[in-house]
Amino acid sequence: MTPRAWPSPPAPGRHELLGFAVVGLLAYAVDLALFTYLRGPAALDPLTAKALSFVAACSVAYAGNALGPYRTARARGLRPFAVFFAVNLAGAAVQLLCLAVSHYGLGLTSRRADTVSGAVVGMALATVLRFWGTRTWVFRAEGRVGSWTG
Q: Model-level pTM greater than 0.90?
């Protein structure tokens, strides 16, 4: 008796990737604009401002993904949003980890090194994690068994 093979999950389509990227850019713009406003005219402390802008950006990203590239996934209720939020927190942790390793572990302490490690390398890794987590755990489409990574 041979083991039953799992069906291969479909590779992400161009529309899915593009939609995810557009929604991500919109969420990033909301995060940046709200953080800037809350730090400036609203005069909130940086951690409170960032926490509020992060929650707002996650909400925009969730709504954009639910109405856009994953509109057929039928994610309902609070659980999918909570999982989406957790995936985004994990992405933020990846960015912080990249920055911490570069700055404190490798001793690369210039502003340029911090920007590259946190906003370039960290953002790239976090985006891959967010895409995988969003597709795998939040907006699992009918007929798709696992993630696109197998």
A: no
CB–CB of 9/147 below 8 Å? yes
Contact present, 145 and 9 (Cβ < 8 Å): yes
Residue carrying structure tokens 């940046």: 32
**Cα dihedral sign for 20, 25, 30, 36?**
positive
pLDDT in tens, 77-95: 899 999 999 999 999 999 9
Tokens representing residue 57 in the block: 């950006």
Could you tell me which of 74, 71, 52, 61 has the C-alpha nearest to residue 27?
Answer: 61
One-letter amino acid at 124 equals A
